[in-house]
Design brief:
Elements lengths: L8 H20 L3 H16 L15 H22 L2 E7 L3 H22 L8 E6 L3 E7 L5 H8 L21 H9 L8 E4 L8
Antiparallel strand pairs: 1-3, 2-3, 2-4
Length: 205
């Protein structure tokens, strides 16, 4: 396993600036406890003794806690889809991902179910996982038994210009401070930034 390189001084300063913007957005939303938790976690990560255990707040609003959670979700679905067989990827640009994401998931699920019913039972094995990085909805498609070109042709019923590509290692996950604060102030947290459409015949994931 390759060890991650240390952050440069410029990277740390940029993260501090973004953390301050997130805290400001949380204060505007009245999420004072969340803001205080993020500040404590960020202070511990920057100035705590590296020889001692430094507890994480595990909040979506904290850079140190958010990025590992998003990356872990992506890696787990990539590994699961590869074990099932063929997989591919496409991205969608959304004006307001937190509002539009549930509708996108519903359209994909309805299309999958309709194709499984009217065209081929193989589409019942189709599974999809989506996660947003703020402006783009990154969607991974697991399609065992169906060619990529055939899946692309059917998905173009919804989005005529999409092109399916190989699965990237990991998206950037650079959310805007406003979106981070909205996620942190809500009940579902990071769950609002992703969706999962499981295969109809296998709900093991």
């Amino acid at each position: 396993m390759t060890r991650r390189s240390r952050s440069s001084r410029a990277e740390i300063i940029e993260r501090e600036r973004k953390a301050a913007e997130v805290v400001a957005e949380l204060m505007l939303l009245g999420a004072y406890e969340v803001a205080a938790s993020v500040l404590r976690c960020w202070h511990n990560r920057l100035f705590g003794d590296p020889r001692q255990h430094r507890p994480r707040c595990r909040s979506v609003c904290c850079f140190s806690c958010r990025r590992p959670s998003l990356a872990a979700w992506w890696r787990s679905f990539v590994a699961w889809s590869r074990n099932r067989g063929a997989s591919c990827y496409f991205g969608l640009l959304l004006a307001d991902p937190l509002v539009e994401l549930p509708a996108v998931a519903k359209r994909l699920r309805n299309l999958r179910d309709r194709l499984a019913r009217d065209e081929s039972w193989l589409f019942a094995d189709l599974a999809l996982f989506g996660i947003t990085d703020g402006s783009t909805l990154h969607i991974l498609v697991s399609h065992p038994g169906i060619s990529r070109m055939h899946v692309q042709k059917r998905l173009r019923i919804l989005w005529p210009k999409i092109v399916l590509a190989d699965v990237p290692t990991s998206p950037s996950f650079e959310l805007s401070p406003k979106m981070i604060a909205q996620l942190g102030a809500g009940r579902r947290g990071l769950q609002r930034a992703r969706f999962v459409v499981l295969p109809r015949r296998d709900a093991s994931f």
